[in-house]
């Protein structure tokens, strides 16, 4: 498992720069190293298959559950916006696949030639073949 963290001037390691000095998101120290158990616990508790309300949200694997800082401080006021934006992007992806399927072949990493052959690939959640 790879992870990054941010350190405070006092040497605590936290989940990100926005959560520096928040003890609820401390995962070790510069002096003592990463607290792998705290990190694993943090990630497990916030996994979109377990966290409410994400576990029943259709966009959970695209959204990822939101910014830890925002969720901790303000909750999830942006969920409707996020779902609307993702729905727009998915519709645009389907439209593009139908009208210009070569686009996906050109934009696939390393030109591997994998492409969206039908819009049904997107509907089935397999946009990359
Ligand atoms: S849109 Fe909201 S409820 Fe859905 S996965 Fe993202 S944070 Fe969770």
From TrEMBL:
Disordered: annotated span: 107-129
Domain of life: Bacteria
NCBIfam families per record: rSAM_more_4Fe4S (TIGR04085)
Name by which UniProt lists this protein: SPASM domain-containing protein
Species, as recorded: Streptomyces formicae
